[in-house]
Amino acid sequence: MTQSPRAASISLQGIQKRYPDGTEAVRGLSLDVRAGELVVLIGPSGCGKSTVLRMINRLIEPTAGRITLGDEDVTDVDPVRLRRRIGYVIQNVGLFPHQTVRANVATVPGLLRWPKNQTRARVDELLDLVGLDPAQFGGRYPHELSGGQRQRVGVARALAADPVVLLMDEPFSAVDPIVRARLQEEFLRLQAEVRKTIVLVTHDLDEAVRLGDRIAVLSEGGHLEQYDTPAALLGAPATPFVREFVGADRGIRRLAVTPLDRESLEPVPGDAAADLPTVALDGSAYDALAVLLTSGRDQLVVTDAGRPVGALSRQRLLDLGRPTS
Length: 325
Ligand SMILES: Nc1ncnc2c1ncn2[C@@H]1O[C@H](COP(=O)(O)OP(=O)(O)OP(=O)(O)O)[C@@H](O)[C@H]1O
Hints:
With 325 residues, this protein is an alpha/beta fold. The chain has helices spanning 49-56, 79-84, 101-105, 107-111, 116-129, 134-137, 147-159, 177-194, 205-211, 230-235, 240-246, 250-256, 285-295, 314-321, and strands at 10-18, 24-33, 38-42, 64-69, 72-73, 86-90, 165-169, 197-202, 214-219, 223-228, 278-280, 299-304, 307-313. The longest helix is centred in the middle third of the chain and has 18 residues, at 177-194.
């Protein structure tokens, strides 16, 4: 996968935010996000997630600390210009109701005075990319779309001017769980293509685990409890706060992010193999458990391109999900 040169790293260094009424929303957070990485901020309500996100595009000015995008200190950049380089997607999308889908997606290219034909081509490309046929949807108004379609338009609009960073605040929480799961899946495919640096805020641990390259768990005051990959977070919570936050079912969640690598497999049992249920090697330990539960068997065969490459017993699978601390 090639990394887009149009993605910038983000570095937060000791950022603080005290609101005028004295509320200390963020007391000193340092966090680095690599270019092209998708980082999820998660934590209880009021811990400062949205405040952190909005400090990155300077919708909120930090009281102290430094934020850099690539080599550039964001406080040195005019905030309006800065926001044109940073896509921002929020829960209820905020599409302009009296503008068509095309006009909505073209907002930032319009501000940047791109030539009309370049904008038009870019808008159609983006609508395609988010799974909306430009011919069918381009001329519609937001109220003529479903919630999931509006969300896709919001993502297309945020990506329109090829931003170096995408900030997303609860982007999928306004739609029902089924649409949400589909949007998440599509979004991962989209990210594999565009490889933007993304900071996404959510309340939903499953969403964090599914989407995040790394997850930052915050507690009150924007205190960073742990910053790790989903598997490491679920496997070894660093603090009692994180342990409680990820919950007793973290073993099950961990299975979903545990690949079936060849080293963890057992030998294929000679004669019995033909009889056993199978799961593909590119699935997760969670998929394997689902196959075992559905089939009622104690063992399954793992296949690669249809060929058996190993086996997994129920016990072995349970061991894969067992946290290490
Ligand atoms: N404009 C403001 N003035 C004063 N306090 C504020 C302001 N905006 C947010 N806060 C407070 O700052 C803290 C952090 O708020 P923030 O919205 O960043 O949290 P959050 O983690 O995003 O919450 P949620 O998950 O509920 O959206 C909260 O205590 C909130 O009440």
